[in-house]
Design a protein that fits this description.
Chain lengths: 227, 406
């Protein structure tokens, strides 16, 4: 049963002009695990997540989950995959509640999640009426994750989730990701932050369009040299 | 809540900042308008205009009148009259060798003596407002005034007759006055203005009414910078991942912006209606009932979707706030200039006049002016719809490229 819930990325490729960004990349994502992708700037980490989230078309390849290719089945992908992009997908004039109402199907679902669901864990109830223009970076990131979880996805894609966040906020997001994995969820994240590495069960370095497995032993200098 | 409703909320929360910016914009436009009117009046004082005379202008009194007008130093205009046949005059008008011509009916002077209401027709080059129209109106007012105020002459005659021993003048003066009222006074409108394309001409006030509405709502785009500029494209990508593609995003944002524009349109129209002097100064709006005015403004609002789509499109082109505002400002200035908002379009070469009718702002001008004249506005309305489609398609293509760009 667990094998059925494994997501597989097979032979994913993408070029920009003459430059190959992803070169037949393959990856298995197991339920209840967090996979981290490392790599230098511009190596294709965000491109990989954008393709898996469906915002960018791949040159070739597939993303299989529960026997369906998510790249060719947008309706199923929208339900199965939650995506938190690197930037801030929020609108300054709107409050946290406005954003939740944009992404969640109804008010009841929001209230339920605020009571004992993902929104409660992320602490979004503390700033429901605050407009985004007055939120801190941490609040924005928590809200972005909360919005991404609106469809109760089983796969969560996070593009540099804790960039420029304070320790308390990182801790809160870390707690939520642990709970999500404990329920069998799949997390795939890209990061530059060594504090996020302990969250990951497996690490890969994206180099020349392919993934190279990496074992982090706490030696930051060795890691930097490997990128 | 869907994305459109989210945009409506954003638009509602942008109302106050947009309102404040619009007030500043109105102040700037008002200043430009006053400056423009003053500079135009200054330019008119240096105008040298040639008018054709068609028909019987041989009468000695008539010739004397023309010579007086030609040599009037105090006039704001330097005038020259040339005698032409009607066909020659038409050709000269087309070639812009003359600014217009006077069509004098057969035995005009005799008819005036006999108290008949023959009219001199003034044919000008275009139905759009121009300095020629202004000149002609002024000349006609002068002539009418000369005739109607000649009553003073009657009293001068009475005084002279009394001083020279005339008796029983009261009855004679009364008869003279009655004859005057019967014969002379109805000739106040002794002229009519005509154009070769037989379209009614637009008054100066009507012209600037359409220009001001265009300028106001064209430049409203500047206030939409914070609403429409977005450097971070992650929201667009996320929406796209959730099945709300570029087309849906653009239409939602454009729709909400148009509704905000419509709110301002209602406010501006209501303010114009409330300040009665403002609308009654436009001859084309005279006699319109409040319901008629509301209908006119409602139909005029068709320009908003096109202008809104232009704003949306331009804000897609650049992601930098300063760059976008500069771009918008330059484009609006250029478009409004070519639409004749600052100088009447008749001042421009023929080729620019023709091109202007197809440009977005020119289409708005043509549309509003057609409505003011009470003509069918179907052609410019189609132009507005076509430009709306073009700008929305452009915005969609750019948005799609931004979503797909890694």
């Amino acid at each position: 049963m667990a094998t059925d819930m494994t997501a597989r990325v097979l032979g994913l490729s993408r070029r920009f002009g003459k430059r190959t960004i992803l070169d037949g990349l393959s990856l298995k994502l197991f339920p209840g695990t967090c996979t981290g992708i490392l790599g230098e700037n511009g190596c294709g980490k965000s491109t990989l997540l954008s393709i898996l989230a469906g915002t960018l078309r791949p040159g070739g390849g597939s993303f299989l989950y529960q026997g369906r290719d998510l790249l060719k089945d947008p309706a199923f992908r929208q339900k199965a995959v939650g995506y938190v992009p690197q930037g801030t997908p929020l609108m300054d004039e709107l409050t946290a509640m406005d954003h939740l109402r944009l992404w969640y199907p109804g008010k009841k679902e929001i209230e339920k999640e605020l009571e004992d669901g993902v929104l409660a864990i992320l602490g979004i109830g503390d700033f429901l009426k605050v407009p985004v223009s007055r939120m801190s970076g941490g609040m924005k990131k928590r809200l972005s994750i909360g919005c991404a979880m609106a469809s109760h996805p089983r796969i969560l894609l996070l593009d540099e989730p804790s960039a420029a966040l304070d320790l308390i906020c990182k801790e809160r997001i870390g707690v939520y990701l642990s709970q999500f994995r404990a329920r069998g969820g799949i997390v795939l994240l890209t990061t530059h932050d060594i504090q996020e590495l302990p969250l990951c069960d497996r690490l890969f370095i994206l180099k020349k369009g392919r993934l190279v497995p990496y074992e982090y032993d706490g030696n930051y200098h060795r890691l930097a040299g490997s990128l | 809540m869907n994305y459109f409703r989210a945009q409506l909320k954003r638009a509602a929360r942008s109302f106050i900042p947009v309102f404040v910016t619009m007030l500043a914009l109105a102040a700037v436009l008002g200043t430009v308008c006053v400056w423009q009117m003053r500079s135009r009046l200054g330019e008119e004082s240096r105008q040298k205009l040639v008018l054709g005379l068609v028909g019987d202008a041989s009468d000695s009194f008539f010739r004397l009148g023309m010579e007086v007008i030609e040599s009037m130093d105090a006039s704001r205009y330097s005038l020259e009259f040339v005698q032409l046949k009607e066909s020659e005059a038409r050709r000269a008008l087309e070639d812009r060798r003359i600014s217009g011509y006077l069509r004098i009916p057969e035995d005009f002077v005799e008819s005036v003596w006999n108290g008949e209401n023959e009219k001199v027709t003034v044919v000008v080059g275009s139905s759009r407002y121009s300095v020629t129209t202004l000149l002609v109106e002024e000349l006609a007012r002068v002539v009418s005034s000369m005739i109607t105020e000649s009553q003073t002459g009657i009293y001068a005659y009475t005084d002279w007759a009394r001083e020279n021993g005339a008796e029983d003048l009261d009855e004679s003066v009364l008869r003279l006055n009655l004859k005057y009222f019967d014969v002379i006074l109805p000739r106040d409108g002794i002229y009519q203005v005509d154009t070769p394309d037989s379209r009614p001409s637009l008054s100066l006030q009507g012209y600037y009414f359409s220009a001001l509405f265009l300028l106001f709502f064209l430049f409203m785009g500047l206030t939409g910078a914070s609403f429409m500029i977005r450097r971070d494209r992650s929201l667009y990508q996320l929406l796209s991942a959730r099945g709300r593609g570029a087309a849906s995003q653009v239409v939602s944002e454009w729709g909400a912006w148009c509704i905000l524009m419509a709110v301002f349109f209602v406010l501006v129209s209501a303010a114009a209606g409330a300040a009665q002097g403002a609308l009654s100064a436009v001859p084309e709006l005279e006699g319109l009932s409040p319901a008629g005015l509301i209908r006119l403004f409602a139909v005029m609002a068709l320009m908003l979707p096109m202008l809104g789509s232009l704003h949306c499109f331009l804000y897609q082109i650049t992601e930098s706030l300063v760059g976008a505002v500069l771009l918008e400002f330059c484009v609006y200035l250029g478009l409004s200039y070519l639409a004749g908002c600052f100088y009447p379009l008749t001042f421009f070469p023929e080729s620019i006049q023709r091109a202007s009718a197809f440009l977005p702002a020119g289409t708005v001008m043509a549309y509003v002016q057609a409505l003011l004249r009470g003509e069918g506005a179907a052609a410019p309305a189609l132009g507005l719809l076509a430009w709306t489609a073009v700008f929305l398609c452009g915005a969609f293509v750019i948005r799609r490229a931004r979503i797909l760009r890694s």
